[in-house]
Amino acid sequence: MDFLLECIGFPPGYDLGRLGQEIRSHGEAAPWRGPHGLHLRYPFPGGLEVRLDQEQGESGETIRPYFETQHRLRVAVQSLRLSPESSGDALLHGMANPPIPDDPWQELSDEDYPICAWLSNARRLPRKLDPGHVLALSLSGFALDVTYLGPNDGVRDPYILEEPRGAQLLPLEGPDAPNGCMELSLRIRSLRHLQNPLTGEPVEALEVDAPGRPLELFVSQWQLANAGFANPHPGWRIEGAFLFFGRVAGGLPRRG
Fold this sequence. Notes:
Layout: H1 2-5, H2 16-26, E1 28-29, E2 39-43, E3 48-53, E4 62-67, E5 73-82, E6 90-96, E7 113-119, E8 134-150, E9 168-171, E10 181-195, E11 202-209, E12 215-218, H3 221-227, E13 237-250
Parallel strand pairs: 7-13, 8-12
Antiparallel strand pairs: 1-2, 2-3, 3-4, 5-6, 5-8, 6-7, 8-13, 9-10, 10-11, 10-13, 11-12
């Protein structure tokens, strides 16, 4: 996950052992993750954080980025699969922006699209969730590979500009595709300037124009430089593969 940590300001080759010790010394228990001390979060100002997970009986640990976005995305569940490595994580496949029942305008809506993501608070979910149940999710994407960043007219396929919001969002498929990964082509609406307090490196939160609600993405400044891309600008387009992490923020069925 170290290449994903670049997206929130940890340079290539950063000492992950040092980072793990910092989280263990100053972090706090991550909610809905399991025993205290094995699942920790280290929040930064502005909504960024790093999370450390270690399952009981395992010597290895995982450190990954996270961002607490204020946007809430309605997603109708199609499938939900618990992670074999962590009981706190679940892989969700669903449809974003499903029509609202009895909404007279639903036939005119073209805002739905398929989405997949890893949910970090799967312990909040009931053991069985009916297909089609709508959850409110807080999701952010972290770049695995950026294939284009530049003026909007450089879109890889012109027909994408005719789609709602000029956007394309598709789950990445194939035997070698990482779970929870999306292939995106989206226009950048705005940038929010953040900073990693442990490294002092700047971090850009990219708000992108997706159907229904905007999404927030993070990219590695080092990956962009190596690929020859300039810094992101509002109005430009970004394309590539992104891994989505988030949490259930609402829409849970009532217990009992």
